[in-house]
Fold this protein.
Amino acid sequence: MTIELRATQPVIETERFTLRLLRKSDVGLMQMYTADKRVAQATRSIPHPLPPGATEAFIARSMSEGRTEDIWAMDGSKQGHAEVLGVIGLQRMDRDQSEVGYWVAPAFWNTGFASEAVKALLDANPQQRKTIFAAVFQDNPVSARVLTNAGFEYLGDAEAFSVARNATVPTWTYLRKLG
């Protein structure tokens, strides 16, 4: 794995794809993927139906200097895959902690891309954090398995609001200590 720093956020190379900054040209693929109800309902923040301008606003926020979350596209173009396979982010928290969140486009489910992205981000630890948290909806055991395979430990049950579902949904919360 190689790491290159660009615009205060590293570019991280994995075996099958590159974790890179989002760019304006990602709008089309990201709109197509996040308009899928299955993707939106697996996240807390993606609305469904996806309103006009939502993807552009998300990309603009990811590029802003004052952002509190670093967001990477999983770019498979070097290996003949799509330019955007999914997205992964690290939300800064206090006390040297961050929270990881990710989604993968349905066409690439069950390929190991989410696991590879999470492991690469943990190995790189670009925010130099001591603790990484994650939460997944309880009706998404595949995402829970991604976390446990990456060394996260189950902390407990909680709940979070899902914009796409317009409801509070039970979650499993996980923790991974680094360094």
Summary: The chain is about 25% helix and 35% strand. The mean pLDDT is 94. Helices lie at 27-34, 37-41, 54-63, 113-124, 141-149. The chain has one domain: 3-128.
